[in-house]
Amino acid sequence: MVQKDGKLKVPIPQEFRAPVGDHASQLVSKIGVKVRTHLPDFSIRRWKHVNEEVMALMFQRLTDNMIKIQAEHCSEPGAVPITPEELSVKVLKPRSGYVKGLGLRRSFSVRTTSASTNSDYVRHLEMEIQEQKKKIQSQKEEIQSHKEEITAQKHEIQVQKEEIQAQNKEIGKINSYCCMLNLLESAGVAVSCAATSSFSIGFDDVREHPCK
Fold this sequence. Notes:
Blueprint: E1 2-3, E2 6-7, H1 24-38, H2 52-74, H3 84-92, H4 114-186, E3 190-193, E4 199-202
Antiparallel strand pairs: 1-2, 3-4
């Protein structure tokens, strides 16, 4: 504290946490004047009732702090800029009883404890987790259903392949038999059809043979 005759020492002992001595009252009075002159009126409870000049100073100070914090963070090599949400928490500090984006904050007139807020937040997260688990389970069941359909289609394709291969074998046998008949006919050999798949070869005229 400074007076016209020089600086006056006013001790503030740690155990009292308050000024003591002959000049303690003068220091308290000067501090009171400074508070009433420069600090906002703490009796104001609503933001809309705050003086515009005071709001402008507060906004400017907060903006400067945000710019400073962002600049200090981005000065580091490879740093990723801070998101607006993170920046607001760093500058404005977290609010007790409020979780950003979850709509859990009550009215200003109702005081909430940090424990109850955390409990609400945990319940909200648990609900989200359960919802995600249901979605994941539904997706797993859908994927499993698709897998079963694909397996059934593969089995059906395999059966069709085997049928086609069997048909090709039969066609090959028939083609071989027809080629043999053609060769025998061209050689003038008579072919006798039998009830079985075997056949006998004669030397009569093929045109008079019953199989023709």
